[in-house]
Amino acid sequence: MSSQRVPIASQRIDAPLTSSATFLVVTATSKPDSITTIRSVLAGLDGLAKNVSIRDLNAHFTCTVGIGSDIWDRLTGLPRPAELHPFKEIKGEKHTAVSTPGDLLFHIRSERRDICFEFERQLMDQLGDSVSLVDETVGFRYFDVRDLLGFVDGTANPVGRAVPSSVLVAEEDSSAQGGSYIVIQKYTHDLASWKSLPIEQQEKVIGRTKLDNVELDDAESGQRSHKTLSTIEDENGNEHDILRDNMPFGSPGSGQFGTYFIGYTRRLWVIEKMLERMFVGYPPGLHDRILDFSTPLTGTTFFAPSASLLASLDSD
Ligand code: HEM
Predict the structure, then answer these.
(1) Which residue ranges does the record assign to the Dyp-type peroxidase C-terminal domain (predicted)?
(2) pTM of the predicted structure, to 2 decimals
(3) Which of 47, 185, 198, 269 could form a disulfide with 261 if both were Cys (CB 3.0 to 4.6 A apart)?
(4) Where in the chain does DSSP place strands (E)?
(5) What would the pLDDT profile of 51-101 be if each residue is shown by its tens digit?
(6) Which ligand 1 atom is at minimum distance from the Cα of 241?
(7) How far is CA 7 from the centre of its chain?
């Protein structure tokens, strides 16, 4: 993907929503050659991706890598993206957006679960003991891109030319051009209590109708819907979109039902503002009611540098 203003090859952030995805978060270990190994694996990621994607070109395989704030300097030795910092915990009156560790995120997407699996297997072989696992979540498409709350998820995402201008850093931060900030949160849902809420109430929580996905009007005051709370304007009244690639995950046998939230953005402050409005509330005290049924287990910020920067990581 490239924007007219960003002549640098970015990673495949704009890849289409697939029917399978793996979200892999790891931290670097303190082994003496960890950083060297990680650099060389990241620089060779394109080759690794080719090994796997050639086996079924129709499976639309992509892997996006995000680098965490704590490891950025050691790993890249390059100027820090202007907004990159660790995920800040947000404590609302009732709900908390927790901050959890993570040096690297691999967002692995494909139409085929086996292709995601095979890539991750070869990747972990290469990384060896240079990393330790923080979280591995396997997401799947649920019918017509619904989350496990039963709503169509991803509708308001930017499309076409609006994608690069929403997600790729441009001339405002020249050394980070072509990159994108990523925020992840792994949520689990209390489906039993969500299901006890009448559908009309659920629709008010989300801000769309459940069956046919029609947008409801924004509330002018009082309790706002999830859709309204996550619509962000700057001081000049410009709305700033982000790109979400959320996936359901879970295990009915063990009663786990979740949504893995992943947002890509050109401006980290936009996602941070969304989170503040969700957890603290807007006005403060009136938090996003989705949180009464959804608990974040993780919260981590990464920066996905351009593909060219990744490829140059092992050149001294
Ligand atoms: C439990 C986790 C979450 C679930 C189940 C969820 C679900 C949804 C659904 C069903 C919609 C309406 C359809 C759509 O436009 O996609 C929506 C909209 C949206 N959500 Fe979420 N969401 C979650 C967490 C988050 C978080 C953490 C953020 C940002 C920090 C976020 C940002 C947005 C945005 C920007 C929109 C579009 C608003 C607009 O209409 O412009 N969501 N979400």
Answers:
(1) 145-307
(2) 0.97
(3) 185
(4) 20-28, 62-68, 90-91, 96-97, 104-110, 131-140, 180-189, 243-244, 247-251, 256-265, 294-296, 300-304
(5) 999 999 999 999 999 999 999 999 999 999 999 999 999 999 999 999 999
(6) 35
(7) 24
